[in-house]
């Protein structure tokens, strides 16, 4: 079972490679992939998580998600240090499909360049980008 | 070729209605999945699923010289096909390379139907036509437009077909004629999933109605995604991946469908490969732990490259990464430990025996 309709919460920031960031102040954020990303991939069967402590850079791949048919890089919407990964995805990667903005979150990050938020898209902008594609 | 419009099967509208994810495949616009590959895969393993495989080609071979001709072009012993029988074989070039892998059905005394892979259909047809001219008394006809093809597979497939269509079904590896939708049809006791079931060759005009009837009867629509995971779990070859004109049937593990004594095209090369052995062999493997192998991934042993993955996927039944790879002949023993280089990560794997998934009961 997956969310059958496209959904992009207004309280998130979006990267054009179909990733989202939920910011907690200037220091912390949670990242995940968007409804569009999980729908394009199909049923996710494997999340190849980064190590806690790894440094990740905006616009660079920090993890992989795989469906039965395809593998996709996960792009960091902002730079920082991985402080936690969603371990529950090891056994239940399908949560990325079922609840991409909730239980399907991927990593928690300590941001190193919080000003990067300015380059991200709001929900409306992201939706408009998808409509154009 | 790349810019040619995609062809659509007679069931295209049905797929679109069901919300299928449609993708280009061998020049056709085909459903890869409807509700999800895992669900569709499970439906075939436990119940019944149907696949629109109308993109596959059909070639009719007919005439007094049909058997002599088939003996020459097919790797298997065509004389063994009884009327109403079916046989798997390779179509080889002079060097023993595999041009295609095919099922041949004997419809009458000197009338046969060959089912081709869609990507190879035109080339197969040209090849068969060319060789048939050495046999004056055989006709090779492209009849691909005459049939829609529906594979209905799974432990409950036969029972559902019997009650929904009111037809008798052939035994495994047999073919029978039937009337479906009040039109002549062929029912083949074959498939590509490792489950029981049949493949229906029906009039394209009635295909949408038959599809709807089977849908009502509870048969689950399945796309090419599940078709691939199902076939790979039981180690059926995919031409273009596991079989190519650069590989002979012996290294592909298909020596069992080659009878060199018939003198088929490529028989000498195949006999040589059988006698001398080949440098590499196609073997199935399972990833131990995380990681999903994909086509083209290098196979490593002791840090050295020893082969290449030709098919790889996530196995919904086994819930792990599986695949087939050509590896050095000294490494083919089941249990041999290797590593698969999956996008730079070395994933431990073990050579396995066929099939990777064993049917229950």
Structure description:
The complex is a heterodimer of chains A (133) and B (361). With 133 residues, chain A is of the alpha+beta class. Chain A has one domain (15-132): OB fold (Dihydrolipoamide Acetyltransferase, E2P), CATH 2.40.50.100. Chain A is built from 4 helices and 9 strands, in the order E-E-E-H-E-E-E-E-E-H-H-E-H. Chain A has a 6-stranded antiparallel β-sheet with strand order 1-2-3-9-8-5. In chain A, strands 4-6-7 form a 3-stranded antiparallel β-sheet. Chain A is globular. The two termini of chain A are 26 Å apart. Chain B is of the alpha+beta class. Chain B folds into 3 domains: 12-53 and 147-233, Probable tRNA modification gtpase trme, domain 1 (Gyrase A, domain 2, 2-Layer Sandwich); 57-142, Alpha-Beta Plaits; 279-351, Aminomethyltransferase beta-barrel domains (Elongation Factor Tu (Ef-tu), domain 3, Beta Barrel). Chain B contains 8 helices and 19 strands. Chain B has helices at residues 12-17, 37-46, 66-73, 121-132, 157-165, 207-216, 224-233, 267-276; strands at 21-25, 28-33, 49-52, 57-62, 86-92, 98-108, 111-116, 139-142, 148-153, 175-180, 183-188, 197-202, 220-222, 280-287, 298-301, 304-315, 320-328, 337-342, 345-351. Chain B is globular and about 60 Å long. Chain B starts with 11 loop residues before the first helix and ends in a 10-residue tail after the last strand. The model of chain B has no long low-confidence stretch (mean pLDDT 97). The interface between A and B is medium-sized, with 12 and 19 residues.
């Amino acid at each position: 079972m997956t969310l059958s309709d496209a959904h992009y919460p207004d309280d998130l920031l979006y990267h054009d490679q179909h990733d989202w960031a939920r910011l907690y102040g200037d220091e912390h954020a949670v990242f995940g992939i968007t409804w569009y990303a999980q729908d394009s991939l199909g049923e996710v069967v494997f999340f190849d998580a980064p190590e806690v402590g790894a440094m990740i850079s905006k616009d660079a791949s920090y993890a992989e998600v795989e469906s039965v048919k395809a593998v996709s890089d996960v792009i960091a919407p902002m730079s920082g240090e991985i402080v936690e990964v969603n371990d529950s995805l090891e056994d239940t990667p399908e949560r990325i499909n079922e609840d991409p903005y909730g239980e399907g979150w991927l990593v928690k990050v300590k941001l190193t360049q919080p000003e990067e938020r300015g380059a991200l898209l709001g929900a409306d902008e992201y939706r408009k980008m998808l409509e154009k594609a | 070729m790349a810019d040619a419009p995609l062809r659509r099967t007679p069931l295209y509208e049905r797929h679109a209605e069901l919300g299928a994810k449609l993708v280009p495949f061998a020049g056709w616009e085909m459903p890869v999945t409807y509700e999800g590959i895992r669900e569709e895969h499970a439906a075939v393993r436990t119940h019944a699923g149907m696949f629109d495989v109308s993109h596959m080609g059909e070639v009719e071979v007919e005439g007094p010289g049909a058997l002599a001709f088939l003996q020459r072009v097919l790797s298997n012993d065509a004389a063994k096909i009884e009327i109403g029988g079916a046989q798997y074989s390779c179509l080889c070039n002079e060097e023993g390379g595999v041009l295609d892998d095919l099922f041949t059905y004997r419809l009458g005394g000197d009338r046969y139907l060959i089912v081709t892979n869609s990507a190879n259909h035109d080339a197969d047809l040209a090849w068969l036509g060319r060789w048939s001219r050495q046999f004056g008394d055989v006709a090779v006809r492209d009849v691909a437009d005459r049939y829609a093809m529906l594979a209905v597979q799974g432990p409950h497939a036969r029972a559902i077909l019997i009650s929904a269509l009111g037809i008798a079904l052939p035994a495994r590896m047999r073919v029978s004629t039937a009337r479906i939708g009040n039109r002549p049809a062929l029912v083949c006791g074959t498939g590509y999933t490792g489950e029981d079931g049949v493949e229906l060759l029906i009039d394209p005009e009635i295909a949408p109605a038959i599809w709807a009837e089977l849908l009502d009867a509870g048969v689950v629509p399945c796309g090419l995604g599940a078709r691939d995971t199902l076939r790979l779990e039981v180690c059926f070859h995919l031409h273009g991946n596991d079989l190519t004109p650069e590989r002979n049937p012996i290294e592909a593990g298909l020596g069992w469908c080659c009878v060199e004594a018939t003198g088929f095209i490529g028989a000498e090369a195949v006999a040589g490969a059988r006698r001398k052995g080949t440098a590499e062999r196609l073997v199935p493997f399972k990833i131990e732990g995380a990681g999903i192998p994909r086509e083209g991934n290098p196979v490593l042993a002791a840090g050295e490259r020893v082969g290449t993955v030709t098919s790889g996927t996530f196995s919904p039944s086994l819930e792990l990464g599986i695949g087939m790879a050509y590896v050095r002949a000294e490494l083919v023993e089941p249990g041999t430990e290797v590593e698969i280089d999956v996008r730079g990560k070395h994933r431990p794997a073990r050579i396995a025996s066929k099939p990777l998934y064993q049917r229950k009961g």
